[in-house]
Amino acid sequence: MSIALVFPGQGSQRAGMGKALFDAFQEAKDVFLEVDEALKEKLSSMIFEGAEELNLTSNVQPALMAVSMAVVRVLEAQGKFDIAKRAAFLAGHSLGEYSALCAARSIGLSETARLLRIRGKAMQEASPPGKGTMAALIKADMEQALEIVSLAAKESGEICYVANDNAVGQIVISGTIAGIDKAIAVAAERGFKRVIKLPVAGAFHSPLMQPVANVLREALQHIEIKAPVVPLIANVTASEVTDPETIKKLLVEQVTGSVRWRESVLYMKGRGVDRLIECGSGTVLSDLTKRIDDTISSTALSAPEDIEAFLKAV
């Protein structure tokens, strides 16, 4: 059996996530306390109490990373699970890519938290109300989605872009509100009955995020990124990368580029991976895996009992 660890992105958050890990394992508690110290605030309290501010992009990004890293640290300590020896690849969905790099010892925990705070804050500032949005095209394939956004952009003169290729029949588009509205109309003309506007604050993974890319490029100049102990599957290329300078470049490109998740999963399968372990809050990536290729098994680890069952099985 060949294993890859995968890490969820924004949208997987829930009130109280990680609290059971915090209470059960010192290793998990240490993660949350270090992130609190790095950010100079009690992010852990915000998470555990389900504070309304948790849903702010600047908070939820380091919060989700903290939960993912709590799972990883417990795996390493309680199960002697050596990622360098046991995992073939690491991958993360959007902000989850930062969790993957932290798990791969490419970026330190405190640095990852501060970097995600910078990224999240810049994304908030680049998303003024009424400017950008996103929508999910249900049952559309990539070729159809590209045709829809291209026509919508041409006819409206607005930005409309494929943001996420999540799974077979689930592609997310991003752009200005007028651009997305036009894409929804175009999709309807082509017989797509389900196009769902997403409750997001901005047009993530589109050219409208270029100001964020500029901020992140500057921030990354002051961060040391080491070669990961396990190859990373990058969102924007859907292929493996280990060179630190290339990783920095791809993290900047990821802000405005598409998250090629379906292709990333299939890339890992093509190199022998037959089991994905989702580390962190929720089961979004495990659910997507079933839709991408149901021959790949997937296990979501977010609670002490999940981790204990997994360690017994492996």
Number of helices: 14
SS content category: alpha/beta
Average pLDDT level: 95
Percent of residues in β-strands: 15-25%
Low-confidence parts lasting 5 or more residues at pLDDT below 50?
A: none
The beta-strand count equals 10
Strand order of the largest sheet: 2-1-9-10
The helix content, as a percent range, equals 40-55%
Distance between the ends: 10 Å
Which H/E pattern describes the elements?
EHHHHHEHHEHEEHEHEEHHEHEH
Shape: globular
* Gyration radius over CA: 19 Å
* Biggest sheet layout: 4 strands, parallel
Put the structure in a nutshell.
The chain is α/β, with parallel strands linked by helices and about 325 residues long.
Structure description:
There is one protein chain. With 314 residues, the chain is an alpha/beta fold. The protein is built from 14 helices and 10 strands. The protein has helices spanning 19-24, 26-39, 43-49, 57-78, 83-86, 96-103, 109-125, 142-156, 177-189, 210-220, 244-256, 261-270, 284-292, 304-313, and strands spanning 3-7, 87-92, 132-138, 160-167, 170-176, 195-197, 232-233, 240-241, 275-279, 297-301. Helix 2 (26-39) crosses helix 7 (109-125). It is globular and about 55 Å long.
Which labels suit this protein?
314 residues; alpha/beta; 4-stranded parallel sheet; 4-stranded antiparallel sheet; globular
Write the SSE topology.
Blueprint: E1 3-7, H1 19-24, H2 26-39, H3 43-49, H4 57-78, H5 83-86, E2 87-92, H6 96-103, H7 109-125, E3 132-138, H8 142-156, E4 160-167, E5 170-176, H9 177-189, E6 195-197, H10 210-220, E7 232-233, E8 240-241, H11 244-256, H12 261-270, E9 275-279, H13 284-292, E10 297-301, H14 304-313
Parallel strand pairs: 1-2, 1-9, 9-10
Antiparallel strand pairs: 3-5, 3-6, 4-5, 7-8
Helix pairs in contact: 2-4, 2-7, 4-6, 4-7, 7-10, 8-9, 10-11
